[in-house]
Write a structure and sequence with these properties.
Blueprint (H helix, E strand, L loop, with lengths): L7 E6 L3 H13 L3 E5 L5 H5 L15 E2 L2 E2 L11 H14 L4 E3 L3 E7 L2 E6 L2 E10 L6 E2 L13 E4 L13 E5 L3 H12 L4 E4 L9 E2 L2 E2 H7 L34 H7 L2 E3 L2 E5 L2 E4 L3 H25 L9 H4 L15 E3 L5 E6 L3 E2 L5 E2 L21 E3 L16 H20 L7
Parallel strand pairs: 1-2, 1-8, 2-5, 6-21, 8-22, 10-19, 11-12, 11-19, 12-15
Antiparallel strand pairs: 3-4, 6-7, 7-8, 9-20, 13-14, 16-17, 17-18
Helix pairs in contact: 1-9
């Protein structure tokens, strides 16, 4: 659609959970819109997860508008491909007006609305909903350039399966949720794995008979707001160690050490084929332990205060902490990569966001959209599906619908006022 054509009521950028959720509400309200997607529906889930990936939150937490999980395993965890099919069926169920293969390059004010510049021409709309997600581009630190040329390097979002890596040992850099899951899969495939550890907590998969996400839901943890955090940067810290694979399990650095995964501190440099590390390994392992202790203590307090009949923790639920003798892995300050047999590196060092293509004053000091409830200070410009946008749950499958509903209602009212058409009813 070239600029100069008729106005759309809304353009939604992104056909993931945030974009489709808003589209579902707008469709029910009869508001004309289009969803522009540079790749395919649910592309982040489809293209940026590895083959054996499973959701980390249980199936019951898939609470998408018009597409709640309704299968027979609410406490299980969908595989990547099952989740993508769920998204596709959802989009088909309400005829989501998705145009795939259209990349949005810029959004700017134009008259009473917006001009959306794409590689397929320009679109004009009274309203724009940005639903591109928070974690957009993998972050690979500068030290990557100092590694020997013979070593294959891959960002975590490009990793699919162990056999795509060259034979030999693998160093996984970053021990958040993704790094730990990839390191475990590589170890189970028979690879020698070296894991560079950073700061991340550990969650018990289950505690006193229930999944940790269910306890957090009931305790209001998923409804926390950004102002309840110790600082704005806490919105982007690494997710705690956890997995939904094989029915869901606790992931533990102590367990990794016992099983033969070699643990290292943070990678700080590389000199003449020797990787260099800080001495913070033990401190980061203690941080994960203390995180687990705090969260289980909070669960226990909630159980006591509400008189909940919960069984004592099982040995499996208690597993993951330090060994009884307090033994910790050796701290290495350097490693000869060739002597260690390391032939490839997987960078699980997080992602970066970039909203500079939005030409409107809606970003905070960190360059992140300020849009509680998905509504920005720029009339007609909305956001959906972003991490910690309104609540902790804003960026996850369990809570994205709440923000989407807020966006759709506000947008519909704006359309009604703009056109006098009475679109907002009920």
């Amino acid at each position: 659609m070239a600029a100069g054509g008729p106005h759309l009521d809304a353009v939604i950028v992104g056909a993931g959970q945030g974009g489709l959720a808003v589209s579902w509400f707008l469709t029910r309200l009869g508001i004309g819109h289009v969803v522009l997607e540079r790749s395919s529906i649910a592309s982040s889930w489809r293209e940026r997860r590895w083959d054996s990936f499973c959701t980390v939150t249980p199936n019951w937490s898939i609470a998408l508008p018009g597409a709640d999980y309704a299968g027979g395993d609410p406490d299980g965890f969908l595989t990547r491909d099952e989740l993508v099919r769920h998204f596709e069926r959802w989009a088909e169920s309400f005829g989501a007006p998705v145009r795939c293969g259209v990349e949005v390059r810029r959004v700017r004010r134009s008259g009473a609305g917006f001009e959306v510049e794409t590689d397929d021409g320009n679109y004009r709309a009274r309203n724009v909903v940005v639903a591109t997600g928070t974690y957009q581009t993998p972050h690979v630190p500068p030290v990557a350039e100092r590694l020997p040329r013979r070593i294959g390097q891959l960002a975590a979002d490009g990793y699919k399966r162990p056999d795509m890596l060259p034979p030999g040992g693998v160093m996984v850099v970053g021990a958040g949720q993704t790094g730990c899951q990839i390191a475990e899969e590589l170890h189970e495939a028979g690879r020698e794995v070296w894991l560079c550890v950073g700061r991340a907590g550990r969650l018990p998969r289950r505690w006193r008979g229930r999944d940790c996400i269910a306890w957090q839901r009931d305790m209001g943890y998923l409804d926390r707001t950004p102002d309840m955090l110790e600082g704005p940067e806490a919105r982007f810290r690494a997710d705690p160690h956890l997995t939904g694979r094989n029915g869901g399990r606790t992931l533990s650095l102590h367990d990794f050490h016992r099983r033969g995964i070699r643990l290292l501190g943070r990678l700080t440099g590389c000199d003449d084929g020797r990787a260099l590390f800080d001495d913070g390994l033990h401190a980061e392992m203690r941080f994960a332990d203390e995180f687990a202790d705090r969260i289980t203590a909070a669960f226990d307090r909630h159980i006591r205060e509400h008189g909940i009949d919960a069984p004592p923790p099982t040995p499996e639920e208690l597993a993951g902490g330090p060994p009884a003798d307090g033994a910790m892995p050796e701290i290495r300050r350097e490693l000869d990569l060739a002597a260690a047999g390391i032939e490839s590196v997987v960078w699980a060092t997080g992602y970066r966001y970039d909203f500079s293509w939005i030409k409107a004053p809606v970003l905070d000091g960190a360059g992140y959209p300020a849009a509680p409830g998905g509504v920005s200070a720029c009339p007609g410009l909305y956001f959906s599906g972003l991490n910690w946008m309104t609540w902790r749950k804003s960026g996850i499958l369990y809570g994205v619908g709440d923000d989407a509903r807020s966006v759709a209602r506000h947008l519909a009212e704006r359309c009604r006022i703009y056109s006098g058409s009475g679109l907002m009813r009920g």
